[in-house]
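Render this sequence as a predicted structure.
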Amino acid sequence: MTGRVGFADYLIIATGTSTRHVMALADNLAKDLKQSDYLVQVEGKNSDGNWVVVDTGDVIVHLFTEEVREYYALEHMWQV
């Protein structure tokens, strides 16, 4: 993302096997990042858990269920 957008250096897109898995991934990722002194903001955990975003400012992680990832296809927006 460096040089393409001004809001992040890296964008990570990952898929969980269920909403519970997506939420667990987000919880554990946020916990580990906070322990490493990153400022972390999590969005989407209070919704249905199909799409959760973990944002550290420089790195943004999108965690999806498979169906929602296929529907939004974010990776296609950023292909070179």
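Summary. The chain has one domain: 10-77. The CA atoms of residues 6 and 58 lie 10 Å apart.
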